[in-house]
Amino acid sequence: MSNTFGRLFRFTTWGESHGPALGVVVDGCPAGLPLDESDLQRDLDRRRPGQSRVTTQRKEEDRAEILSGVFEGRTTGHPISILIRNKDADSSKYEPLRNLFRPGHADFTYIKKWGIRDHRGGGRSSARETAARVAAGAIAKKLLAHLGVSILGYVDQVGEVRWDGAHFDADEIERNIVRCPDAETASRMEAAILEARKAGDSVGGAITVQADGVPPGWGEPLYGRLDSDLAAAMMSINAVKGVEIGSGFRAAGMRGTENNDPFEMKNGETSVRTNNAGGILGGISSGAPVVVRFAVKPTSSILIEQDTVTASGEKTTVKVEGRHDPCVATRAVPIGEAMMALVLADHWRLGLGSRIGESD
Amino acid sequence: MSNTFGRLFRFTTWGESHGPALGVVVDGCPAGLPLDESDLQRDLDRRRPGQSRVTTQRKEEDRAEILSGVFEGRTTGHPISILIRNKDADSSKYEPLRNLFRPGHADFTYIKKWGIRDHRGGGRSSARETAARVAAGAIAKKLLAHLGVSILGYVDQVGEVRWDGAHFDADEIERNIVRCPDAETASRMEAAILEARKAGDSVGGAITVQADGVPPGWGEPLYGRLDSDLAAAMMSINAVKGVEIGSGFRAAGMRGTENNDPFEMKNGETSVRTNNAGGILGGISSGAPVVVRFAVKPTSSILIEQDTVTASGEKTTVKVEGRHDPCVATRAVPIGEAMMALVLADHWRLGLGSRIGESD
Amino acid sequence: MSNTFGRLFRFTTWGESHGPALGVVVDGCPAGLPLDESDLQRDLDRRRPGQSRVTTQRKEEDRAEILSGVFEGRTTGHPISILIRNKDADSSKYEPLRNLFRPGHADFTYIKKWGIRDHRGGGRSSARETAARVAAGAIAKKLLAHLGVSILGYVDQVGEVRWDGAHFDADEIERNIVRCPDAETASRMEAAILEARKAGDSVGGAITVQADGVPPGWGEPLYGRLDSDLAAAMMSINAVKGVEIGSGFRAAGMRGTENNDPFEMKNGETSVRTNNAGGILGGISSGAPVVVRFAVKPTSSILIEQDTVTASGEKTTVKVEGRHDPCVATRAVPIGEAMMALVLADHWRLGLGSRIGESD
Amino acid sequence: MSNTFGRLFRFTTWGESHGPALGVVVDGCPAGLPLDESDLQRDLDRRRPGQSRVTTQRKEEDRAEILSGVFEGRTTGHPISILIRNKDADSSKYEPLRNLFRPGHADFTYIKKWGIRDHRGGGRSSARETAARVAAGAIAKKLLAHLGVSILGYVDQVGEVRWDGAHFDADEIERNIVRCPDAETASRMEAAILEARKAGDSVGGAITVQADGVPPGWGEPLYGRLDSDLAAAMMSINAVKGVEIGSGFRAAGMRGTENNDPFEMKNGETSVRTNNAGGILGGISSGAPVVVRFAVKPTSSILIEQDTVTASGEKTTVKVEGRHDPCVATRAVPIGEAMMALVLADHWRLGLGSRIGESD
After folding, report:
1. For residue D214, which residues of chain B lie inside 8 Å, CB to CB?
2. Residue B178 · residue B268 · CB < 8 Å
3. Which of C10, C71, C119 should one mutate to test binding to chain B, selecting the residue with the greatest count of B CBs within 10 A?
4. C196: which strand partners?
5. Which residues of chain A neighbour D81 with C-beta distances below 8 Å?
6. Rounded to 10 degrees, what is the CA torsion of B225, B226, B227, B233?
7. What are the beta bridge partners of residue B2?
8. Hey, are the CB atoms on C77 and B113 less than 8 Å from each other?
9. Smallest Cα–Cα separation from A69: which of A82, A57, A58, A60?
10. Which residues of C are less than 8 Å from A357 in CB distance?
11. How far is Cα D345 from Cα D33, in angstroms, rounded to an integer?
12. Looking at CA atoms only, how far is residue C67 from chain D in angstroms?
């Protein structure tokens, strides 16, 4: 069950990094949504390896092929199966890694769990799987756009370079290769990434994803809270080590008078004056933007020699060759957006019928 | 479905803050576990209101009554239903709040979602629900103890007072009323809480929960990752705004060489030298302690006047009277432990049968 | 997970036959539905033991107590917890059965699965659990009534006495103690039951449940088919051995020309001329009445001596004393209705959002 | 969620009858199982169209391609994605059916639910989807074989020809084209099918599926009963109208003394002398063969003119041309076996950890 996400708008991914293909089956998308392959391609291109000098140089076109669930240009309500071929897998670099455990990777835990693993490119544990989520997320985004919801992500930290929040230019995000909303910060981030790469090392980062237009009332109480689902969603992305909603960890240092968001009327609607809650109160959307931030660790694959052991328990060292991102934050932006979209699409369906007389 | 948590070891909670009772049904506990009501009481007492001068003064005994699933002192494999009566509910203080929205609370979002809400004590959105989780968690802890796993939580931050990590004394945790592992820090934390209370204000905090003895191989890949489930679990607790695993948000500022945990042999076992991963690699336990940290916001209910609006859209102000914790961090310790235990118990069952020849 | 039924309108039951109480938690009922305990009592009374000379003589009031989820007479959207106390349990008759396996009962399989069982009154395997479903079903029925759907069940077979289908009088059903829609057949059924009881034996039967007013379009394709869910629902009732939809097993002997239901226009609506499909095509309701029939085996508890073995493998014989129904068909009517209602309520919610532009 | 079946050993199917391909993703198969494409082919060939003169003449090779989850000949514990190309789809015959409702088919209900449908070959409602289940079932069968469980299905009724149960020859089943265990009955069944085809009509039938070697203790109580899951599984197959376990509907006419299966010791094991229970007591396997029987209606697509209406509500008639099975029972045998296998594989995993000390 662990390869499926969502309850009503749900998807199941499959495939390994160096297998013939990977893919996703999206189930629960409502019928009647106009959809074709070009709808999926924009975000796949944003996630694609080899797109810039701060990403891995593996070249994949990541062309999505829709095999079911669409008829005469519209969704039918039936599962949408999407296939993406692997074309540039080079397994030769992985042969020396077959019988040792790369630090920071899932090699050791996978072997302990299953007794067998596809070591080529990390197999199932590779972030290549995220292409499938991004394709699914593109469908969710299209549905959400129809419902008036839009989603935007950006990088706000790379290593020690943090965006100070002063200048935000939405158009700037896709203009620079790190996806930061401020050009000047972006160039410092890019320098930090290239410096790490030059040292054979890698660097961490953080991403903010925001959803605008979510109406009040989406989300469930308790164990289906919107924030709980978003935390699970973001933490399911490779390399993510922390998730926060609204004021997040800063709230630990605050007082109630600072952190509470006063209510006020704005254009006849009950609104919050500030948004420390990140758009979610009691697990349910308040109508304010839904704001999530998550941290990604520095890429585990580095060219610097590290201590480790072999599968048979001998001490050794490893330099992880192959083609890797020196910082995964920039490519994580469309992935985080996809997960946000998938959670919201699911909650849209979940919420229908919450009260008598509304949807019946 | 939103009042149920877990897949195989799962529980469903019910009840409102000022209703006659609240409770939980635990399904999926294996048969044969010795269990009686005293097993639940220790953690219920740690979570109980009115236990010290830094918590709310509502007095509840929180006596758990087991109504099913136990026969002659052992679990039967059938659902364990636990009932906790509400005895000291005082709804009078809530009458003035019936038609306005308390900042930081779920009043507004609940009304937008359901069109009706039990305003007494916050109804279903009250943290009183967590008594039910703690009772369920006590069963999970007992099962885990049988499997060699123990769980320990503590407060590491209250407002601006952060524990520096220098001195850790496990026995100290329950000796001081804030549940900090260092006595000196604990007294500064207590002072910070009492100062906030005196000002009619509240203060946030952070909690670390650690599980020792989890063998390598627990957890699922992708959407059933142990870290993903833990993030959802902690974020489902009232007032939680952020969750991190291992190095967490610090990882964003680190390099791969710093954050990667080298493997080494220790007592014949493959082990990690450091534990930035928080005991989880690729969503699966590595054998190192599983470490989660989460932030709680300052209590939303404060005695200081705040701007808000009424249900009919008029501007007003509110001071939230009633009995409230000035800082929820200390009582969140057993709740965080319970959620950790419930996630781990679930993953223990989920993992059985992962490979041929092991469990058949 | 096996004590929970349903996806969005779902319920979880708990409790043993001779424990202090049993109950159910209903999650997913929309907010705003008027509800109080009297709504549950009518069907509980129809299911209650001791109601007539053809049922067991155990006397239980089966008073349902609502502990949560209802505020000022209306549902709130939160879990509805219902408690029913056991009052007339007499465990003395079960002591001799503690260490042997009653034929037809779950004694043997429960011990093989869990290694422990509450032998008193069958413990969790007792049909007493169905009181909890009937209470949950009463809520579903109330919701369905609001949506224009009504449900009616009746006995159509007791042993070799089959109702010929000639005379159907809905009002007759509750007028006779076997719940047959034809008075004359009812009296022959009653005689068959009493004759079996007199012989210390028991007799099987069959029940039809019909839902009227289900609009076209409820149900899901493939593994969420309305008929698939109904089959699971009915087969989950104690003693049920077969389920059929519409023409059911008769269809095996038919030709397409006989079994196909031609479409025609009736009052401007596309309708079926006959209803061999039982109101379901491709897993989805057609607008015609949804018709399910199920068979119950003769009660396993009989006073006639039968061969069996003890838990330690010795040959022995057993006469099952205690208070038992000689035929469970009559009390199965409200249970079957409850399960039909619960499946339909779930599908109502599931279907919302199936297409763009309808529910958004 | 409706395109997924199972809890732990689960699968998700996708694809339309005349789309480019169909497929299935199997999640939860344990690691280490030897598997290659030839393992899937035997059952796919048994289900394949065009295999004999009593089946449809559509020619499909139904070659299964495994795209993931297998590494160096063994399963890895990760999702197994299987792709089957559609090669002989001929949509021209369906063009006249685009805007009318074929009696007995899902055309009308699909349009009412989704407002759009792929009319070519029935789209998603086509029994072509069952190829995907058969592929998934072949994996489940291989796992079960490893656990000592084997599954066998056969046709016991075609129209009015019923097998009398007298002679059972397992080897005969695949020797005749109707899959009946008695050669003489098989030839009468074949005649019945060919006669119906000649008349442009179709005929129903019934199938029995039996699992041998299931140990006592598989299955869950209440809503996860083995019989309940089997009923749902069989009823999810196209054209199935009834399901029974063991004595099934005959139990309605029986007395307890006849239907109860006495226990006895056989080779040191507690066993049942008869098997009216069909191997399941209280939802849990008893160690006796698990026996399910299901009825399939006569194929809805017939060449005889039938009354119907168009999508715009006009009266019309229809003869359903195209290539159809005159009786679906024979091809339903491997499908029923697959569903039995999938239910059992799921219950094997579900049951692990049911009691303390067994699997930990």
Report:
1. none
2. no
3. C71
4. none
5. 14-15, 21, 23
6. 110
7. none
8. yes
9. A82
10. 32
11. 13
12. 23
Residue in D closest to C291 by C-alpha? D241
pLDDT in 10s for each residue of chain D, 360 residues: 899 999 999 999 999 999 999 999 999 999 999 999 999 999 999 999 888 888 887 788 899 999 999 999 999 999 999 999 998 878 888 888 999 999 999 999 999 999 999 999 999 999 999 999 999 999 999 999 999 999 999 999 999 999 999 999 999 999 999 999 999 999 999 999 999 999 999 999 999 999 999 999 999 999 999 999 999 999 999 999 999 999 999 999 999 999 999 999 999 999 999 999 999 999 999 999 999 999 999 999 999 999 999 999 999 999 988 778 999 999 999 999 999 999 999 999 999 999 997 544
What are A25's two structure tokens?
A: 């089956």
Q: What tokens were used for D327?
A: 């009786």
Per-residue three-class SS string for chain B: CCCEECCCCEEEEEECCCCCEEEEEEECCCECCECCHHHHHHHHHHHCCCCCCCCCCCCCCCCEEECCCEECCEECCCCEEEEEECCCCCHHHHHHHCCECCCCCCHHHHHHHHCCCCCHHHHHHCHHHHHHHHHHHHHHHHHHHHCCCEEEEEEEEECCEECCCCCCCHHHHHHCCCCCCCHHHHHHHHHHHHHHHHCCCCECEEEEEEEECCCCCCCCCHHHCHHHHHHHHHHCCCCEEEEEECCHHHHHHCEHHHHCCCEEEECCEEEECCCCCCCEECCEECCCCEEEEEEECCCCCCCCCEEEEECCCCEEEECCCCCCCCCCHHHHHHHHHHHHHHHHHHHHHHHCCCECCCCC
Chain D residues closer than 8 Å to C132 by CB = none
Percent helix, percent strand, percent coil in chain A, to nearest 5? 30, 25, 45
Q: Residue C250 has what DSSP assignment?
A: G
Tell which B residues from 2 to 61 touch D, by Cβ distance under 8 Å: 8, 30-33
Residues C218 and B231: their CA atoms lie apart, in Å, by: 36
ipTM of the complex: 0.97
In this prediction the pTM is 0.97
Upper half-sphere CA count for residue A347 (Cβ side, 13 Å) = 31
In this structure, are residues B82 and B26 in contact, taking their beta carbons and an 8 Å threshold?
yes
Does A302 contact D at CB distance below 8 Å?
no
List of E strands, chain A = 4-5, 10-15, 21-27, 64-66, 70-71, 74-75, 80-85, 150-158, 161-162, 205-212, 240-245, 263-266, 269-272, 280-281, 284-285, 290-296, 306-309, 315-318
D32/B355 Cβ within 8 A: yes
- Cβ-defined contact of B67 to C117 (cutoff 8 Å): no
Whole-number Å distance between alpha carbons of C91 and C74: 39
Q: Which helix H or strand E contains D306, and what residues bound it?
A: strand D306-309
* Distance (Å, whole) CA C331 – CA D165: 34
Q: How far is CA B321 from CA A133, A259, B19, B91, in A?
A: 47, 18, 19, 11
Closest CA to C33 of C333, C339, C349, C343: C349
> Among B295, B298, B308, whose Cβ lies nearest the Cβ of A255?
B298
Distance CA D132, CA D201 (A): 28
Q: Rounded to an integer, what distance in angstroms lies between the CA atom of residue A240 and that of residue B251?
A: 9
The burial of D252, by beta-carbon neighbours within 10 Å (0-12 exposed, 13-18 middle, 19 or more buried), is given as buried
Top residue of B25, B33, B223, B356 to mutate, by most chain D CBs within 10 Å, is B356
The CA distance from B1 to D182, in Å, is 49
Distance from CA of D32 to the nearest CA of A (A): 7
Amino acid found at B68: S
Strands of D134-196, DSSP E: 150-158, 161-162
